[in-house]
Amino acid sequence: MSRGRGTLKQVASEQDFKLKQCQSIAQVVSSNQIEIRDAKRDNSSTLFKRKKRRSNRAYNLLVMGCFLGLPIRRRRRRTRRRYMPEIPLDLLVEILIRLPGKNLARFKCISKQWLCLISSQYFCERLYTTRQRKQQPPHLYMCLVDDYEQSALLSMSSTSQDNTCFVVDQDLSIPGMGGYFLNVSHGLICYTVRRQACIYNPSAGQCLTLPMIKHDIRAEQGQTMYIRRHYIGYDPVDNKHKLLCTVVMYCDRLFNLKSEHWVFVLEAGGSWKKVVSHENDRPHTPFARGQYIRIGSVVHYLAWHDMYTCAIVSFDFRSEELTTITAPDNVREMMSVPALKMKADLIEYGGKVAIFQHTNLQIEGRVVLWVLENAEKKEWSKMSLVLQPCQRHLVQDTELILKGTTQDGKAILAPFEMHSGFYILCYDLQNNDLRKVEIKGIPHHWFDKECYYDLRLMSESESVIYLET
């Protein structure tokens, strides 16, 4: 009973205290209103404005004092205005580069000066190099599309230090998104929707659809196959992002093959420009589900000149020039029709372009690596890898396709089709070691229907670029 009386007294005292505060507020407000009325009667407008400002300040201070527990003062001493010194530019940049990309995107709206600073080449380079040094944990981006053009873009982060499990942490899907060929560069994602390139900035939540290309290829009789593939890259000298589009048209079995190449500069007023071709350039078509690699300002991908001739196509985003190097004949390994049976793609191996040939991985557990040692002399080196017997079961039950490489050069292999219990394999080519990585959190309805997917591992997952054309 004593405790109950004590609590009742405490509640009553608190109510009395709040009542007194409210009464004091009412007194001040009423007195201020009287002062304002007196000032209104005065012919001097300046005096009225001055008293009104004082009353507003007194009212605000009183309310803050009541709710923050500060002592109530009717008047405040006049103090001189203190001007804060300007923050040096170097210090401001150091502060901004430590903020998340979403905050930087919002800060661009503060003023034109902030917009110019955050969008400048100096700031973007500082931001990119700083976050590269920090070695931020990589993000896995996965795009899924079904036959009804329903799509999703999922972001996944690692839940362990050894990156043995990735869990979906964000659904980045937006209306109108589609396509499953993902290309990434400096925090930007490129994909294709109905033959149009779309650029997506996941850190800012901004999506941009580029205009359609009006190519010069005229369809001839029998040319029913049409391919349009986009690749995104970066020009470090001019600090510009660019896109390469390869347009292909051919008949069945790659007969009467024709191809064109177009480049787009990602800037205000940008438009597609046709890449000048040389006399010795042979038309080609990219691999059906081929990957690409980007080393510096050059993008590389595998392509076919015909059903038997394979080549590496390289495009320099700086000079906007296209070059091709024919792959060694031994890559085909006595295949009757290599374009139909060969399973190969490009990876970066020790800073060099390499062909990862895994046609016999599922049956024999064997991988052949062709490394381009000298591009000018067209010198190649060959290396064969055989899986350890204890790891053969990881590749025997399903057909695998290459999905790029990790930061430390490990090849990423993924099942050809989606299924429950989805996973990827990381192949350490230096130590000849295969490791399974679980993927969790994918919505279950994607496993109950036929769908296509693509995935990319991206370390520089934040970009402050404002997409504008």
UniProtKB/TrEMBL annotation:
UniProt cross-references to InterPro entries, sorted A to Z: F-box-assoc_dom_typ3, F-box-assoc_interact_dom, F-box-like_dom_sf, F-box_dom
Annotated ranges, domain F-box: 81-131
Keyword check for Chloroplast: no
Keywords: Membrane, Transmembrane, Transmembrane helix
Record field: transmembrane: 58-74
SMART domains for this protein: FBOX
Metal-binding found in the keyword field: no
PANTHER family: (RAPE) HYPOTHETICAL PROTEIN, BNAA05G37150D PROTEIN-RELATED
Designated name of the protein: F-box domain-containing protein
